[in-house]
Amino acid sequence: MQSARDVVRQTMALVLAGGRGSRLKALTDTRAKPSVYFGGKYRIIDFALSNCVNSGITGIGVVTQYKSHSLLRHLQAGWSFFRNQMNEYIDFLPASQRTDEEHWYQGTADAIYQNIDIIKDHKPKYVLILAGDHIYKMDYAAMILDHIKMGSPLTVACIPVPKDQARGFGVMNVDQDWLVTDFVEKPLDPPTMPSNPYMSLASMGIYVFDAEFLYEILSRDAGNRDSHHDFGMDIIPPLVQQRMVHAHDFTKSCIRNRGNTDIVFWRDVGTVDAYWEANMDIASIQPQLDVYDFNWPIWTNQIQLPPAKMVQDISGSSSILRNSVASAGCIISGSSINQTLLFNSCRVHSNCFLSESVIMPFCIIHRACRLTKVVMDRGCEIPRGMIIGEDYNADSRRFYRSEGGVTLVTRAMLAKLRQTEPELFEDFDNYKAPVAMPSY
């Protein structure tokens, strides 16, 4: 039996990071979904990449397409520590029409196929294919070892999810040996698990292929004009019919919360409500996602910034933080912050009240503002006295209001509001951010 160290050295990971993630609305107007900020200091893609590094996989390709500038800048700045002399690498694989001059990536399988020559150059024995837009901690080495043990050329990671949430996933059935007996991509009426009629077994978008087998099926699929060139729709179903696919139980490889080992955390933060909820977990008293585990660190790009600072306002009122995260470079003056994440270099002026909110980097919130259940995109500046999250009609007119009651605020929305309601901006403070905002 091969050791984990042996198999990860024979594995190349490919992170699919080209999707827009349109259900995140304006958060992905200028960036791909994997590049969206998360958890107070990270980007979403940092979790898949950190899992690779922590698992011992240091041969990685990142496949990009939609508005990838922000993502590529982040990867160049924060993920450039690989050592070529040790056969470590992170390849950026943007859509570049490598196999023909007519098409960009047509689907997930086509995105891999168009880079097949690069993959072959690295000579992997196993290819690990990952979605770059999910939040979780996983030891991929354990899954690869499981793949070898089960003996099928393809292994798909899976996790039970409530039936009403399974419509956005590939859903499978397995036998007692975890051989996949049925697979349906994004069904309207998801099949449930035999042991639980309220839960469905969902694909996590994590695949391990024998490399030679992958090359063969991708070449075959590329020649099929009727194919969508997608793993879930076109590649996996016929392989399931041929009994060539095993499932990997995520509970075998999940890196668990040290405070509660019963927790198995995996989130698709594909909607504004799901994104807000997952961030709120970080700020809770006992988060389900343990980002404080030094044995499984989440790597990211870190700008050199001063520590966060909380000071009294001019009247002597102190700042109060409850169940909140304040990242480096933040300055909070005599305000109350509750169940909120402040990313780096945010400025909260005096007499503000922030509750259940996600404030991305370089935001400025002027005096006497009240924000409740808000997601604020990078670089927003809120005028004095503005109230967001308390009036459904006003929030819906000015910003985007989700079904779950989360108000999304972006710079473009504020610029439009400044044209339609200029009186809100008449008393703007002339505050300058302590650090110049980077261009990405």
TrEMBL record:
<dbReference type="InterPro" id="IPR056818">
    <property type="entry name" value="GlmU/GlgC-like_hexapep"/>
</dbReference>
<keyword id="KW-0067">ATP-binding</keyword>
<protein>
    <recommendedName>
        <fullName>Glucose-1-phosphate adenylyltransferase</fullName>
        <ecNumber>2.7.7.27</ecNumber>
    </recommendedName>
</protein>
<feature type="binding site">
    <location>
        <begin position="185"/>
        <end position="186"/>
    </location>
    <ligand>
        <name>alpha-D-glucose 1-phosphate</name>
    </ligand>
</feature>
<comment type="function">
    <text>Involved in the biosynthesis of ADP-glucose, a building block required for the elongation reactions to produce glycogen. Catalyzes the reaction between ATP and alpha-D-glucose 1-phosphate (G1P) to produce pyrophosphate and ADP-Glc.</text>
</comment>
<dbReference type="InterPro" id="IPR023049">
    <property type="entry name" value="GlgC_bac"/>
</dbReference>
<feature type="domain" description="Nucleotidyl transferase">
    <location>
        <begin position="13"/>
        <end position="283"/>
    </location>
</feature>
<keyword id="KW-0119">Carbohydrate metabolism</keyword>
<feature type="binding site">
    <location>
        <position position="203"/>
    </location>
    <ligand>
        <name>alpha-D-glucose 1-phosphate</name>
    </ligand>
</feature>
<dbReference type="GO" id="GO:0008878">
    <property type="term" value="F:glucose-1-phosphate adenylyltransferase activity"/>
</dbReference>
<dbReference type="InterPro" id="IPR011004">
    <property type="entry name" value="Trimer_LpxA-like_sf"/>
</dbReference>
<dbReference type="InterPro" id="IPR011831">
    <property type="entry name" value="ADP-Glc_PPase"/>
</dbReference>
<comment type="subunit">
    <text>Homotetramer.</text>
</comment>
<dbReference type="InterPro" id="IPR029044">
    <property type="entry name" value="Nucleotide-diphossugar_trans"/>
</dbReference>
<feature type="domain" description="Glucose-1-phosphate adenylyltransferase/Bifunctional protein GlmU-like C-terminal hexapeptide">
    <location>
        <begin position="306"/>
        <end position="409"/>
    </location>
</feature>
<keyword id="KW-0808">Transferase</keyword>
<comment type="similarity">
    <text>Belongs to the bacterial/plant glucose-1-phosphate adenylyltransferase family.</text>
</comment>
<comment type="pathway">
    <text>Glycan biosynthesis; glycogen biosynthesis.</text>
</comment>
<keyword id="KW-0548">Nucleotidyltransferase</keyword>
<dbReference type="InterPro" id="IPR005836">
    <property type="entry name" value="ADP_Glu_pyroP_CS"/>
</dbReference>
<feature type="site" description="Could play a key role in the communication between the regulatory and the substrate sites">
    <location>
        <position position="65"/>
    </location>
</feature>
<feature type="binding site">
    <location>
        <position position="170"/>
    </location>
    <ligand>
        <name>alpha-D-glucose 1-phosphate</name>
    </ligand>
</feature>
<feature type="binding site">
    <location>
        <position position="105"/>
    </location>
    <ligand>
        <name>alpha-D-glucose 1-phosphate</name>
    </ligand>
</feature>
<keyword id="KW-0321">Glycogen metabolism</keyword>
<dbReference type="Pfam" id="PF24894">
    <property type="entry name" value="Hexapep_GlmU"/>
</dbReference>
<keyword id="KW-0320">Glycogen biosynthesis</keyword>
<dbReference type="Pfam" id="PF00483">
    <property type="entry name" value="NTP_transferase"/>
</dbReference>
<keyword id="KW-0547">Nucleotide-binding</keyword>
<feature type="site" description="Could play a key role in the communication between the regulatory and the substrate sites">
    <location>
        <position position="104"/>
    </location>
</feature>
<dbReference type="InterPro" id="IPR005835">
    <property type="entry name" value="NTP_transferase_dom"/>
</dbReference>
